[in-house]
Every structure is written in structure tokens, then in C-alpha cells.
Write a structure and sequence with these properties.
Low-confidence stretches: 1-13, 18-67
Mean pLDDT: 80
Oligomer: single chain
Strand content: 15-25%
Order of helices and strands: HEEHEEHEEHEEHEEHEEH
Shape: globular
Helix content: 25-40%
Strand order of the largest sheet: 3-4-6-5
Number of helices: 7
Amino acid sequence: MPLSGSGETSAAQPLPMSFPLPAAAPTTARRARARAVAADPAEDTPAEETRTPAGETAVGDRQLVFFGAETAEPSVADLAGLLAGPGEVHRMGGTARLSVVVDAGWRVHVLVAELAQRGVRATWTPTEDQRYAVRTAYTRAIVPLAAAWLRGPTQQPPAGFQLDGRRLRLWLAAAGVVDPPEILLHLGGVDPGRWSVVGAALIAAGLVGELVEPGAGGPAYRISGRRRVSRLAELVGEPPPAAPPGAWPVRD
């Protein structure tokens, strides 16, 4: 599908490529089911006690990760996952805007839908290097993120930065590359100090990553090993409908 105009996400301005926008109803249903199980585990748990890893509870024939993407309602704070990767935040007066450049049309579809779920309007525009820039509108809703991440002109993760399933899902959608048996989560910026804080947050989430230096396919964190890749798949939840086959990790 040809690209045209400024990238406004209106009916008159289609998103790049022909991937369908993710449907909200199944996601909402999964969250409702997760809340029901949290309130009454007996509703969906066998009578016989089921042992599960720390941070998980049995849900039918699968496990619900407490910090996974499906266990809480979307929040603007989740956009910190984009800043852990190549996302950038900018302030203007009493507002702020978040932007990220992605390499595929399906990523535009996923991010626009994820941002809309958080009440944030987004536009896109093609770049000179055949990629897509996704930008939010300037809004007061993103000011807390800008305040936490900006030190003057420098962007740095705040002290105690953490990654949960919803943040990881956004990072993966924007800059994750699945290349079995490993996954690359691409980073932004040029400051190794910024990368090390993000790496520590990965470790705290149970995802020890190897830093890939710039010029060797990075900067990025490489998540490798069946257990770690499966852990990431558990945290980020089911593949978005727009993701092509093989572009999203699946639980082993």
C-alpha cells in the first residue's frame, strides 16, 4: 500500500502495509479473566494443588505471570518500555511527546493500537531510510515520563527503573528481533550507562541479556537460551494480530 501525507492515523490515511489493526476485545476478555482468577483462584485452578514457578499461578493449562502484559490495565507509564529501547521523549512547555523509529509496517500498527489503548494519539511518517517514525501528540499525559527520563538534554532511565510485561511488550513491538534460538532487543542512544541500567532491569525481570555492542548488530541486548526466551514470551503475552509469523516469541 503506498504511503502518503503526514501519517495521520485517520480513516483517510491508512497505516503502512496491509496488516489488520489488533482487536481490543480478546485482550479485554483475557484481562477480565485474569482479574477473575486473581480474585478467586479456585474458579480456574484444579482442585489438586498445582505447583508453579515463583511469580506465576496456574490458569487452566497455562500459567499467568503476575507481572505479565495480560495481568493489568494499560497505562501511560508502560511507555517507558519504548524508552528502554530506541524511543525518545521531548518536552515542549507543559507538554511532552514520545517518538520511536521502527523498521516495519506491522510495528506501526501494533504501536498505534497500543498507544490508543492508553489514550494517546499517534501519527506516523516514512523516513528517508525506508523506515517509519511513530510519534505521539504533545500531551500533558507524557510529562511524568519526560520528567523521570530527561536530565537536561540527556535521556537516562530513572533510578530504580523496572521492566514488566507491558513495558517489555512495547519494547519488543518497537525493536525486538526474533532470531531463534535468541531474541535481540535493540537499544537507543550512545551512552553505555543508559544501557547498563536497562540491562539491570532485564536481570531483575529474570532475563539476563548479553550486551551487543554498536557495529556488531547493536546496541542491543541478546536474550538467548530456551528458558529465557520462554520467560520473555510469558511476560509479553500473546502475539499481536499484526505481527507476522515468526516475529513474536512463543512460549516453549
